[in-house]
Amino acid sequence: MTIRRANEKDIPRIIDLLGQVLQIHAEIRPDIFIPGTTKYTDAELSEMLKDDLKPIYVAADENDICVGYAFCQIREQPFSNNMVQFKSLFIDDLCVDKNTRGRHIGEKLFEHVKSEAKRLGCYEVTLNVWAGNTSAEKFYEKMGLKTKERQLEYIL
């Protein structure tokens, strides 16, 4: 297993994995997510691959086939002037192919992201998890993440 930056040849597999994530989200929140779609298009992914502030890391198997990814964003904090300034690495999306789960690929991806965050001088690694995605919550808690804030909603 190799963790590396994504490249153009990974796009078809990333699209497949984005579809898997979307399906999980659509089952949790059918009022928001549209089954059969993906978060990004091929063209958007191609542009993102060039953006060092939005690195995409992939876990590649022995045949260099992408079996998981971590979409990241380097963010400057704070969002207001009453907070200490720092850099944060935000995980926008992390997925492991449903056919390869249980092989610690997600752990390896997350550890790589943590190492990259340290290398880049980040103070923290953050992410969001949809309520109801209990397997993701358990995974991130196992990886040592703690709740930083909660976002509440009132559906009209």
TrEMBL record:
Pfam families: Acetyltransf_1. Keywords: Acyltransferase, Transferase. Residues 1-156 form the N-acetyltransferase domain. InterPro entries: Acyl_CoA_acyltransferase (IPR016181), Diverse_Substrate_AcTransf (IPR051016), GNAT_dom (IPR000182). The keyword Chloroplast does not apply. Gene3D superfamilies: 3.40.630.30. One of its GO terms (molecular function) is N-acetyltransferase activity. This is GCN5-related N-acetyltransferase.
